[in-house]
Specification:
This protein has three domains: 158 residues, OB fold (Dihydrolipoamide Acetyltransferase, E2P) (Beta Barrel), CATH 2.40.50; 201 residues, inorganic pyrophosphatase (n-terminal core) (Alpha-Beta Complex); 102 residues, Diaminopimelate Epimerase, Chain A, domain 1, CATH 3.10.310. The chain is 37% helix and 20% strand. The protein has 17 helices and 18 strands. It is globular and about 75 Å long.
Length: 584
């Protein structure tokens, strides 16, 4: 008897879901559980676009930033854009470069090397820009904690406009402007914008002052927004919806080449495409090559040149995957026998610095606990942390700040550097932190648990349900893709697939029909169901194609024999499953 691997947190029955236009009772039930109780509220959410964007002037220092940039544009000053080396930072840089080009300004751009310079501003980099004639530096996705570096810039005669979305320290930089929605004195209605989202809002406002437009800004901001795992609510949702429409019709040669390389349907990209196919390729440049490779691709107008750069980036992406696979296996060995649910650090000084965030992310997902991966770069240790929802990484780093040389981050991710002599003290302090930390809703984030959104008979699986769920996209943090618990399926076939047999492919039967499903990353000791067995599954309903033919399948998160399923005892409940008109 196959039992579930996870604890399924089943929803309470909902006897009377609201009537919502265009949605059958199952999806109306889902929406009610997510707080949508009326049509007007739902319409505003589904239709989020430009009308959902707030006036950027509501953000503290935004007008000061725009005034200083506008002065530089009109006076012909040399402007430099300083960005981070991840997809959020790089797309923010490209947003600013394109916006300034629309105003006749060719900005310098500077993205530090992850290996030799590390995150954030550096005095050496600022000195280099000063020597090139820059008088104004605009930061993207960094700078809010660089108090000393901004002070040094002022001594050089450089003005700095900081635009960032990371948690500020106790003292803000003495900059021409510090635009960060997480400032204590900022009452902006939506603090969840990413670096690219802030760049998009400010650059759009600057262009509006000049009655100009620039192409693809929302599309680029959408990539950065999804890459940095912003909540798919509020302004971030609006930016992604606007951006997906732009990306599907872009004429920019490099961007078109990237979409064509990475996506089966480049004319209709989804948020999942941005997160799982586009962002990893952009990030690969900053991880194991140079960020300029991805930036030049995103800026390239010519398709033929874009194709050549896209080929080069694809090779870097494949190499990054190889390096990551080796490092993750080594990391798994390091954590063997280290039980518990608290934060944990793993260190291997042979790991490339550019992949430690991926190592931390893979372990955090599989262990359901906060994980930091650390390696040595020169005379310092650098680390990257990834975390479940109940552990705020930036708060954790602030709690350990006395041990760190540098730090930066937000809720789900962050990075730091530490002197080797402080390593043991930092590790002890970090691993002593407890969960939850700095998060509000802890129950659903506990290890080994997964929240189910809907319990459905298999007869509901079809294009009508898929179409209705597609209308709720884009999905992401704060608006996750619905997890379905599906009953009434029997196993036609179940087999291990993939290079190492790490996935399970199912052919399932519902009456006379068949339905495909796949469970990625299934542990090797997980038993497979027998042919003909009644099976309950939880997972997401997704669209893909096989040999050019559209199809639906379940992406399985967990499965169990029907007799051992958490749905036993509820299967016959009228409030859950019968009659078929009720889905709860």
């Amino acid at each position: 008897m196959i039992e579930p691997r996870l604890e399924w947190l089943l929803p309470e029955p909902l006897a009377d879901p609201p009537r919502l236009a265009g949605f059958d009772r199952p999806v109306a039930t889902l929406l009610a559980r997510r707080g949508f109780t009326g049509q007007a509220q739902l319409d505003a959410f589904l239709g989020a676009g430009r009308a959902a964007l707030h006036d950027v002037s509501l953000m503290t220092d935004a007008d000061r930033a725009l005034d200083r940039i506008d002065t530089a544009v009109r006076a012909g000053e040399r402007i430099a854009i300083w960005g981070d080396y991840d997809a959020d930072g790089m797309t923010a840089v490209v947003v600013w470069v394109l916006a300034l080009r629309a105003l006749g300004v060719e900005a310098l751009r500077y993205v530090p090397s992850r290996l030799s310079e590390g995150y954030g501003l550096s005095v050496a980099g600022l000195q280099h820009l000063s020597e090139l004639g820059a008088t104004l530096v605009i930061t993207c996705d960094c700078g809010v904690v660089n108090v000393a570096e901004v002070a040094a810039a002022r001594r050089m005669g450089l003005d700095v406009v900081v635009t960032d979305h990371h948690l500020p320290g106790p003292v803000l930089p003495d900059a021409a402007a510090v635009v960060d929605p997480h400032r204590a004195d900022c009452a902006y209605p939506d603090a969840d914008l990413t670096g690219a989202g802030i760049a998009y809002k400010l650059a759009s406002a600057l262009l509006a002052r000049h009655r100009r437009e620039a192409p693809d800004l929302a599309g680029l901001a959408a990539i950065g927004t999804v890459a940095d795992m912003a909540p798919m609510t509020g302004e971030s949702r609006a930016i992604v919806r606007l951006g997906l429409a732009e990306l599907g019709s872009t004429r920019r040669g490099g961007l078109r080449a990237l979409l064509s390389r990475a996506l089966e349907h480049p004319e209709a990209p989804t948020a999942r495409d941005l997160g799982f196919s586009i962002a990893p390729r952009i990030n690969a440049a900053g991880r194991i090559a140079e960020a300029e490779l991805a930036i030049s691709l995103l800026l390239e107008p010519d398709r033929a040149v874009g194709e050549r750069i896209a080929d080069e980036l694809e090779a870097v992406h494949l190499r990054r995957r190889e390096l990551t696979g080796v490092a993750v296996e080594a990391a798994r060995i390091l954590v063997e026998g280290r039980s518990g649910v608290g934060p944990i650090l793993v260190r291997d000084d042979e790991w490339p610095a550019g992949i430690i965030g991926l190592v931390a992310g893979r372990l955090a997902d599989s262990l359901a606990r906060p994980v930091g991966a650390v390696t040595q770069v020169g005379d310092e240790l650098r680390g990257s942390i990834r975390s479940p929802a109940d552990f705020h990484v930036a708060v954790a780093l602030e709690a350990c700040a006395s041990h760190l040389a540098k730090r930066g981050g937000h809720a789900a991710a962050g990075g730091f550097s530490v002197e080797p002599g402080r390593w043991e003290a930092f590790r002890a302090a970090f691993e002593a932190l407890t969960r939850p930390l700095g998060a509000a809703d802890q129950e659903l984030a506990l290890p080994g648990r997964i929240a189910v959104d809907l319990v459905l008979p298999a007869v509901y699986l079809g294009w009508e349900l898929s179409d209705q769920l597609e209308r709720l996209a884009p999905y992401g943090p704060g608006h996750l893709e619905p997890i379905l618990a599906v009953t009434g399926l029997r196993v036609g076939d179940a087999r291990r697939v993939g290079v190492d047999g790490g996935h399970v492919a199912f052919r399932l039967r519902r009456s006379l029909e068949t339905f495909d499903a796949v469970a990625f990353g299934t542990p090797p000791d997980r038993p497979l169901p027998e042919e003909g067995a009644a099976l309950d599954l939880i997972g997401t309903l997704e669209r893909d194609s096989f040999q050019g033919v559209p199809r639906l399948r379940l992406r399985v998160v967990d499965y169990a024999d029907a007799g051992a399923s958490p749905l036993v005892g509820r299967r016959r409940s009228a409030s859950y499953l019968a009659p078929l008109a009720v889905a709860g």
